[in-house]
Amino acid sequence: MKQIDFLLMFALVFALSFFALENPEPATVQLLPNLKVSAPIALEAIAAMGMGAILAWVFSVWTSLQNFWMVRRKDRQIQTLQQQVAELQADMEERKRLASATAIDVEVEAKNPA
């Protein structure tokens, strides 16, 4: 996977370099109503890709945080359910013990009618 990432990055840098060499003329970009920037087209393209990369990173961090929170919530839910299962198993063992004790008492009474 790292080789594919490297090849994609290399192809992108190569294409951007070729684009920069072929388009050295400046272009004006209006960022705000009173703010205009004049720079080579390649520099503007690099800046736009950088801003896109930053936005993608922010989205990735946000998604990772959401997944982390969901996993923590599910872990708490699993822990609660495991505690409930342990309590129910202990209750079931107690009921089995009481049922077998009652069965022994019934059996003893049947053998020894007083």
Q: How many DSSP H or I helices? A: 2
Give a short account of the largest sheet.
Answer: 2 strands, antiparallel
Span from first to last CA?
A: 83 Å
Oligomer: single chain
Number of strands: 2
Mean pLDDT: 86
Spans of at least 5 consecutive residues whose pLDDT stays below 50 are: none
Strand order of the largest sheet: 1-2
> What pattern of helices and strands is seen along the backbone?
HEEH
Radius of gyration: 36 Å
Look at the helices and sheets and give the structural class: mainly alpha
Mass-distribution shape? rod-shaped
Q: What is the percent of helical residues?
A: over 70%
How much of the polypeptide forms β-strand, as a percent range? 5-15%
Structural account:
- The protein is mostly helical and about 110 residues long.
- Helix content is about 80%, strand content about 10%.
- It contains two helices and two strands; from the N terminus they run H-E-E-H.
- The protein has a two-stranded antiparallel ribbon.
- Strand 1 (about 25-30) and strand 2 (about 35-40) form a beta hairpin.
- Helix 1 packs antiparallel against helix 2.
